[in-house]
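Morning run. Coffee first, then this:
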Amino acid sequence: MALLLLALGAVQSRADVPNPGAVTHTDVAREGAVIQVRSSIEAPAAVELCFAVLADFDRLAEFIPGMESSRIVSAPGEPLLLRQVGSTTAGLSSFTFDVTLAVTLEPPHRITFRRVAGNLEQMAGSWQVSGDAAHCVVHYEAVLEPSFWVPPLIGPLLVRHKVEQQIDGLAAEIVYRAVQPAR
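And here it is:
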């Protein structure tokens, strides 16, 4: 569908869409092996649109840098299970993240998740969406513990950089969808 629209010239590239008013912020802290992440996005888009982008699970890999796949793996009518795979590099090292999350949706304001399988010892958190028909604020909080060694000094910096890229990708998709005509 998107390729057809691109061929017709009806859809702007995300890189072409100005980012008016979208602001992101990320903090990462480490306590022992546990990494705590807090991020936020402020965007000129309706709460419902912001929530819809967050909950577009099967398409997240299209606009989240480093995410190789994201797909719902539970059967219809069963509790929502989401498997996500991604990778990152640090110098000569490469890390692959493969996690299955139990997800609870409370549209249009909250998504909670917790790890049920994968190569993270723990991962739990939430997305909170607030605002109105013209502006949304998205807060992300997560606690994660990789099952592999993360360098103590540079690890939090690498995690912060990766999360910032992902949050920026999410913000760009929110703005992109907000300026596109209804399809």
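The beta strands are 23-31, 34-43, 67-72, 80-90, 93-106, 110-118, 120-131, 136-146. Good start to the day.
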